[in-house]
User: What shape does this take?
Amino acid sequence: MKILVFNEEKKLDAYVGETICDFIRQHDQATIGFATGSTPLGVYQYFIDSYQNHKVSFQNVQAFNLDEYVGLKPEHPRSFASAMKNELFSHIDILPENIHALDGSKEDMDEECQRYETLIEQNPIDIQILGIGMDGHIAYNEPGSPLDGACHVVNLHQESIESSLDYGFDHIEDVPTQGVTQGIGTIMKAKQLIMMAKGEKKADLVKRMIYGEVTSDFPSSIIQRHPNVIVCLDQEAASQLKEEDYEKR
Ligand code: PGA
Assistant: This one.
């Protein structure tokens, strides 16, 4: 595991953004996994700037979203599909048919999960962007999720429901109580993981993710077992790590 700690948020975003742009430029086809939430927004802005300055094209990119709320149609303004469209996809030249996501509004969610799992098997993810939730989740794999799980529906924990208020819901009662997510097993099949965390509120979680036991009680700890993972942190999120364990940037 490579751990990089950046003294400026802009540098962190540019590092992750450029790593992925480089990969896209060097490959005829690139399959990238995208995460919602506030943490990667600076990276998405980096992609938009790079595209607008003719430094990268996303026409050869297949995009896979990590997770979604159950009960919202993709076009619902608070869906993760809409968030990804508004924050990134509508500002770059990615082809609409290359944007893939779980649809949380399907009648048969088991079938929907199977469809998405198969699609990912057919299009293995080259680089997966990840964040860590306030209960240690990755994607919507809440504590207790099986470490080898496939795409599945989950009951959201209270911390995740509360965090959703940051994503534009006005009232807690409006937040869906279930999500649908790539499983931990699905995520672990990606060839490379880039885990990002920012801010003091993530410091304890980052410590446990890196030094703690690998356990389904703390799903993000699974990244310790991935052969190709870069953890990109700001100084606040890294404040509980030993200095000898990371590289300063
Ligand atoms: P955040 O969410 O980036 O908004 O902190 C992370 C997550 O829940 O995975």
Remarks:
- The longest helix spans residues 9-26.
- The pocket of 2-phosphoglycolic acid is lined by residues 37-39, 131-133, 163 (CB under 6 Å).
- The mean pLDDT is 96.
